[in-house]
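Internal tracking record. Fields below are filled automatically when a chain is submitted to the structure queue. Please do not edit lines marked as system-generated. If the sequence contains nonstandard residues, flag them in the REMARKS field before resubmitting.
Queue: standard
Priority: normal
Entity type: single polypeptide chain
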Amino acid sequence: MNQRTRVNPKKQNHIGVSIVSIIILLAMVFSFTPVSSFASSPTQYITITIQLGDVNFDGTINVSDVNAVNLHLQNGPPLTLKQLAAADVNQDGIVDDLDVELLYLIARKLAPTPPVITIILGEVTGDSVINVSDATLTLQFVTGQKIPTPRQKFAADVNGDGKVDSKDVDIVYLIARGLATPQTVFILLGDVTGDLRINVSDVNMVEQFLNGNYAFSPQQAAAADVNRDGKINLADRDYIYEIARGLKNSPGIIMVTVYVYL
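SYSTEM-GENERATED OUTPUT FOLLOWS
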């Protein structure tokens, strides 16, 4: 059995801490406006429900979920942040062999089905309200001062690009100030630049993102995940390249709810 370890995915490339992040740190030191004054109404948040244990999100907990988590722990295909949140079946903040064993029992109907949890995107402190404390804690995740649980990491990835970086810190701060709100938008998959065309500019933008030189907005992240597997990687870049060359068609237009800001 593997030694229990807290989930700490590979060290991410991310853009340096932004000006907004620095402001948050200054607010901590000099105690500016109380964080409660920045709170938004819970109705202004994006919430995601997850059935614990249903790692592949097919509506059932079975051996395929067990295998997916086990392979992840054995350095096989990595789970997405959302899958990791679902895989922490016992909610101890760690995805490990205990979760695999519990999943096996659940799949065999030898243990009760775990509960459905609701995660508020951007809310990482556990108080069901997004304020500057959430931005501060997200910044600590980015700088390595704190290690997030799987649930926290999924919640902190507010732009949905599969990693937690300074862009997420900025967006959480904007949500806390009421300057970013959920909106349902139409996205042309592959159109990362938002010009309603899919060409080499979209390929280049994904390449910059993969190299850690560009941070996506929530809309761009949704458009870049062309194959809709919850990850933005070389497979998406290659897919967009083939669309741009006329070798494939775009998978089409999707409707998603994301945090939108000016």
